[in-house]
C-alpha cells in the first residue's frame, strides 16, 4: 500500500533533464524541489538526487533513504499530475527523520503540490 512502485519514479536521465529545464524550483536549507506540472490524469512521479558535495556514499545513501521514506509515507497527500525531483543538500545528512520530514513537507507546501486530505 505504501510502497514506491516503478511507475511512480522518474528513471531516465532525459526525464530528469526535462524537469530541471522546464520545472520551477523551491528551495530551503536542506533540499531543493523541482516541480513540473503535467496533466492531472497522470500519476505524480518523483526522483531523488544527492550530489557528491554531501559526502561519501554512506552519507548520500542515508540522505536518499530519508527523502524516500518521507515521500513514501506521504505520497497519497500529494496531488496528481506532477513530476518532482527532490535534491538533498549537505545539511540534510545531519537531520533526524522528524526534522527531515518537517522540512520536506514544507517544500511540498511551498510548491503547492500538497493536498489537504489523505486519499487512498
Automatic annotation (TrEMBL):
One GO molecular-function entry: tRNA binding
EC nos: 3.1.26.5
Enzyme class: hydrolase
Keywords tagged on the record: Endonuclease, Hydrolase, Nuclease, RNA-binding, tRNA processing
GO terms for biological process, alphabetical: tRNA 5'-leader removal
Cross-referenced InterPro entries: Ribosomal_Su5_D2-typ_SF, Ribsml_uS5_D2-typ_fold_subgr, RNase_P
GO cellular-component term (any): ribonuclease P complex
PANTHER family: RIBONUCLEASE P PROTEIN COMPONENT
Name used for this protein in its record: Ribonuclease P protein component
Species name: Megasphaera vaginalis (ex Srinivasan et al. 2021)
Native organism taxonomy: Bacteria, Bacillati, Bacillota, Negativicutes, Veillonellales
